[in-house]
Write a structure and sequence with these properties.
The structure holds 2 protein chains of 2 kinds.
Chain A lengths: L8 H14 L18 E2 L4 E2 L2 H12 L5 H4 L22 H7 E4 L3 E7 L6 H8 L8 E7 L4 E7 L5 H10 L8 H4 L7 H27 L3 H4 L1 H22 L1 H12 L6 H20 L7 H29 L8 E5 L4 E5 L8 E4 L9 E5 L2 E4 L1 H4 L5 E3 L4 E2 L4 E2 L4 E5 L5 H5 L15 H29 L3 H14 L3 H20 L2 E3 L3 H7 L3 E5 H5 L7 E6 L3 H11 L5 H12 L21 E7 L3 E6 L2 E6 L1 H6 L14 E7 L2 E8 L7 H11 L1 E5 L7 H8 L4 E3 L4 H13 L4 E5 L5 H6 L2 E6 L11 E4 L6 H34 L5 H30 L11
Parallel strand pairs in A: 17-24, 17-26, 24-25, 26-27, 27-28
Antiparallel strand pairs in A: 1-2, 3-4, 4-6, 5-6, 7-8, 7-9, 9-15, 10-13, 10-15, 11-12, 11-14, 16-28, 18-23, 19-20, 20-21, 21-22, 22-23
Helix pairs in contact in A: 8-10, 8-13, 10-12, 10-13, 11-12, 12-13, 12-17, 13-18, 13-29, 16-17, 16-18, 17-28, 17-29, 18-28, 18-29, 19-28, 21-22, 28-29
Chain B lengths: L2 H25 L8 H7 L27
The chains are: A alpha+beta, B mainly alpha.
């Protein structure tokens, strides 16, 4: 019988408060650097934030890998998802292994994993010393820019599933996505590009050396023989440049001419052709030495520019590319029970068992169970639909409720699942954005340049200086660089997008940034967006639970994805052990979860289940009374939501879930209120109107008791009055409104959650920075405009000088890539500087997990 | 002065050799990852602990996980 207050649930709360009182500053976890709630996980000198970090630390210390902590500060990765052993079991299937492994000869196998949590030198070191953790692992090699590790292992000593489990246990869980299973080949083009640059550089350098006598006017000294010889040598050296190094430009130019679309490759190719032809003519006829140095130089600098572009693009792509959230494996019913099976191994006719919150991976027919499907991922409809046995269920829907059995009628379409985010249903009509602007300018520009080149050539030829005419023609073609136009937007927006991602804000694509810059009104949702839906704010309103009882409640609450249950579970899971009288901390009581049988979640009411023989209920007062549990009068509470706990039919206590505001909301709303029109739309009741009136200020509109439809209508109303609207909400319930708005922002507690109806997915920690983010978006678009301006200026000046026939093609060859590089550097640099000034990623460099 | 001819041709041959070496390096994949080797150097073992080496132990067949202390 729980007697002392210290024993009960209230005791847990007391313990937590005491810990908070004694330590004013939260220590940083030695392993991962995140703040520690208390000192419950500690060794002699180090503190850790959770059991996971402590375990990894001990593992590394035992295996002699302590140097890990010397290489970087807090290099560890916090393990957020508890890995279940069975999760990887399907990796041992031979058919799957064949596709996943790079190589195997029966004894030694080699596999390449993509591990997004690689982020520093220490990670590289640890993964390359993986063999010290397990004798079955051999050599491993990390490719840092690609975040990949190539491992070889002995199949007899460690299986693939164990290998993956090992990696997950130290925080480096491989990203096994469907894309990976389709075996994307590494980029074969990069080798070719390096070779092209090498050949061009070789030729460029040598031709310039051979041209030195000409530059220095040493013709008469060296005699005519050398001039002829050097001419032919230069021609020979330039040939591979034109044929091999510039081959991409020929191909692109031919393609664009065939499709009757003028791209920027056409003037470049024309310029190259003109240069080579002219030079060949001059050398063979003995009239001069041509412009082979310019030709080789031009190609070399162009290719250098392209390599640079490719590298930046690769970095952008990785940070942006986190498409696949869909569960890779599902549970399939077999004759004797269940098994975990990979999505790609599903056949038509398989019976799948889907739990609460799981996504339906393939179209199917409901066989049994109470199915309540939320199709918000697919259609944006936030109202879950109840389905009867025999009804059809579509892939992408999410089950809310208990376990259901689904028979697949269509094969899994991986492309369908992973393309939901950029799916047409979520595409918004946009006009007049920078992308279309760039395209229009490029086309006009190319025509203009060719026109000017021809006109200049004609002019000079008619005035009798044919040589100058040709020089003008090629110079104009070469010096004109619309590349800057095409580079300014992608690089500036791409850099902005990447910096935002570092600050835990993920954009659907770079154009969203542009939309964000034009936002004039911001609409907020309340629950989960402005208020916190995590463990803070959970208090024990009444009653007490003994420690084992708390463990049962925790086990039950964990089964459900409902925000209330999740909060309670998290709070219980985080609480420290009870403090004994002498101040020592007892080991955590809640590490292992007892099994729960008969779990049933009644939507909107509560959850129930049997844990270790005891019948537990967790839910609202009304529901408990419906289930014939008497709820004592003095346990009614007014503030916030109350969740009551009943064990074996008797009400034991209640949790009060306060609606705590996120930190810094007051400041944020004040800042936003000055520049934008802000409004609040909440599905909750009017209880907190006064409090939010204070926060939002007098001018803002506050609406409560809003249904999803009403929210959508409100946004439409704002749009009709000519404003661009940004909606900030939680992805699941506000899907319709998010879709309607010009920019839909979904706030998630863990970045793994996925809302296709939104344009932006923002981690909860990033919400206080909303004002800075919008400022960055505005600045970025301004920077793009400046980039256009710089490029235009350069072109006007360059073309006018070139048309006068004064500029040598070599100078143009240097100027042209220089202009591209300068625009790119300006775009990237200015955006980075703006982000730094606005302190976008002030919480440091964190990898999304 | 005609010796310059020979010298120029010789230098071109030398330059060509270097180009071939570059081509070989690219084709053997040395340019695939120019970032990680730099990081790898930072993580080298400075301690000389007995039994622990910087490379995984391989037995005669070249398989990992052979002699372990």
């Amino acid at each position: 019988m729980p007697g002392r207050p210290e024993d009960g649930l209230a005791g847990l709360a007391l313990g937590l408060n005491r810990a908070a009182d004694t330590g004013t500053e939260r220590a940083a976890c030695f392993h991962c650097g995140e703040p520690c709630a208390d000192h419950s996980f500690a060794t002699a000198a180090k503190v850790f934030c959770c059991q996971g970090c402590l375990v990894v630390h001990e593992l590394l210390a035992e295996s002699g890998l302590g140097q890990f902590y010397d290489l970087s500060r807090h290099p560890g990765v916090r393990i957020r998802r508890e890995a279940r052993r069975e999760q990887w079991a399907y990796l041992d299937e031979p058919a799957l292994q064949q596709r996943l492994l790079d190589f195997t000869d029966g004894k030694v196998s080699r596999v390449t994993f993509k591990i997004p949590s690689i982020h520093c030198v220490a990670c590289v070191w640890l993964l390359e010393n993986l063999f010290r953790l397990n004798p079955g692992v051999g050599k491993s090699q990390v490719n840092f820019p690609r975040r990949e590790v190539a491992l070889s292992f002995a199949r007899e000593q460690i299986s693939l599933s164990e290998l993956v489990a090992l990696l997950a246990s130290i925080g480096y869980e491989p990203q096994l996505t469907l894309d990976e299973l389709e075996k994307a080949k590494p980029d074969a083009g990069s080798k070719r590009r390096w070779l092209q640059v090498g050949v061009a550089g070789f030729a460029f350098g040598n031709i310039m050396l051979l041209s030195i006598p000409r530059y220095l006017g040493l013709d008469s000294f060296s005699g005519p023989m050398f001039r002829v010889l050097f001419g032919y040598l230069s021609l020979a050296l330039a040939a591979p440049v034109v044929i091999y190094s510039a081959s991409d430009y020929w191909r692109a130019a031919v393609l664009s001419v065939r499709q009757r679309v003028l791209t920027l490759d056409v003037p470049i190719a024309a310029g190259l052709a003109a240069l080579y032809a002219q030079s060949a003519f001059e050398v063979v006829s003995g009239r001069g030495e041509g412009y082979l140095d310019s030709l080789a130089g031009l190609v070399f600098f162009l290719l250098c520019g392209r390599v640079f572009q490719q590298k930046t693009h690769d970095r952008l792509v990785f940070d942006r590319d986190y498409k696949c959230f869909f569960p890779l494996s599902v549970r399939r019913k077999t004759g004797s029970g269940e098994e975990s099976v990979a999505l790609s191994n599903l056949c038509v006719g398989d019976h799948l068992l889907l739990r609460n919150g799981e996504l339906i991976p393939a179209d199917g027919r409901l066989v049994s169970g109470a199915a309540v499907i939320d199709y918000s991922f697919v259609t944006g409809e936030s109202e879950p639909v109840a389905k009867q046995a025999g009804e059809h269920l579509y892939a992408g829907g999410q089950q809310i409720g208990g376990l259901i059995e689904v028979e697949t009628v269509k094969a899994v379409s991986q492309s369908y699942l992973t393309s939901l985010w950029n799916h047409e249903a979520f595409a918004k009509e946009r006009e007049g954005n920078l992308n279309t602007l760039t395209n229009r300018y490029s086309r006009r520009f190319t025509r203009l340049v060719i026109g000017v080149a021809l006109a200049a050539a004609l002019f000079w030829m008619l005035s009798g200086e044919a040589g100058r005419g040709l020089k003008a023609f090629t110079s104009v073609l070469i010096v004109a660089c619309p590349c800057a136009l095409a580079l300014a937007a992608p690089f500036a927006l791409g850099t902005g997008q990447r910096l935002l991602a570092r600050g835990q804000v993920f954009l659907k694509n770079a154009l969203v940034l542009e939309q964000m810059a034009q936002v004039e009104a911001i609409v907020f949702d309340k629950t989960g967006t402005l208020t916190v839906s995590r463990a803070e704010g959970v208090t024990v309103a009444a009653g007490e639970l003994s420690a084992p009882q708390a463990g049962w409640v925790w086990a039950l609450a964990r089964q459900s994805m409902h925000p209330h249950s999740a909060r309670i579970a998290e709070w219980l899971g985080q609480s420290s052990g009870t403090r004994a009288k002498d101040g020592t901390i007892e080991p955590r009581l809640l590490t292992s979860s007892p099994t729960v049988e008969g779990f049933v979640e009644t939507a909107g009411c509560g959850i129930e289940g049997t844990v270790q023989g005891h019948e537990l209920r967790l839910g609202s007062r009304a529901w408990l009374e419906q289930c014939e549990v008497r709820v004592p009068e003095l346990w009614k509470s007014d503030e916030g939501s109350a969740v009551y706990v009943a064990i074996d039919g008797k009400c034991r206590g209640a949790f009060a879930l306060g609606n705590a505001l996120r930190p810094e909301m007051g400041r944020l709303l004040k800042e936003l209120g000055q520049e934008y029109e802000i409004a609040l739309l909440s599905g909750d009741n009017e209880r907190e109107r006064a409090r939010f009136r204070d926060l939002f200020g007098a001018g803002a509109r506050l609406r409560f008791n809003q249904s999803p439809m009403e929210k959508l209508e409100f946004i439409r109303g704002l749009q009709n009055s000519g404003k661009r609207v940004m909606m900030v909400g939680d992805g699941l319930n506000d899907a319709g409104a998010l879709k309607q708005s010009d920019v839909g922002v979904a706030v998630v507690e863990q970045v793994g959650a996925f809302s296709p109806a939104s344009d932006v997915i923002m981690a909860a920690e990033a919400v206080p920075r909303l004002f800075a983010l919008l400022a960055l978006a505005r600045r970025t678009t301004r920077i793009v405009r400046w980039g256009f301006g710089i490029s235009a200026l350069y072109n006007v000046v360059g073309i006018s000088i070139a048309a006068a026939g004064v500029l040598s093609p070599l100078v143009c060859a240097v100027l042209m890539p220089l202009s591209s590089v300068s625009v790119v550097l300006f775009a990237c640099g200015a955006v980075s500087w703006a982000a730094k000034q606005l302190r976008i990623s002030d919480f440091g460099f964190q990898i999304p997990t | 002065m005609s010796v310059i001819l020979i010298l120029i041709l010789a230098s071109l041959v030398v330059a060509l050799t270097f180009l071939l070496a570059f081509i070989w390096a690219v084709r053997s994949g040395q340019f695939e990852d120019t970032c990680t080797p730099g990081m790898r150097v930072l993580g080298e073992d400075r301690r000389q602990e007995s039994g622990l080496r910087g490379h995984p132990p391989l037995d005669e067949r070249g398989l990992p996980g052979a002699e372990r202390k």
